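WARN no homologs supplied; continuing
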Amino acid sequence: MLACRLIQRDLSSYLDGELPAARAARLEAHLRTCQRCREEIAALEGINDQIRAVSHDLQVSQDFDQRVLRAVGYYQVTRAQRQRKPLTKPLVVVALILLALLGMIRHFFSRTLPLPARAPVPAVSGLAPAASGATMPDRDRERRR
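OK structure emitted
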């Protein structure tokens, strides 16, 4: 079956005489052993014969193929493909700009803002204040005078 699918892919090219000699010989060897592929090529030959019979009487102008290709947009597509410039440089520039912007945003939001100034806290001595009515040590009394 796999061989038949590979052969059937080449049947039209074989009928048109476009297959290389080695592939044509392989196809002919397969056709000698495969009834299904012989029927397929016979059907294709019948279609080719009908097309030749009908087209034999047709007269086409010299520029027919160019007009058909132009009508289906062939020339516009191929011209656009030829004129397409690589986008590598602009994409790299855009990526670098985005990275720089992201870095600046990160820097802005990660910056520590200064805290508002607080009122100075009085120094606290290691001794507890004396209870009311209690006597102060001599040293403290002298200092207060």
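The chain has a mean pLDDT of 75.
OK
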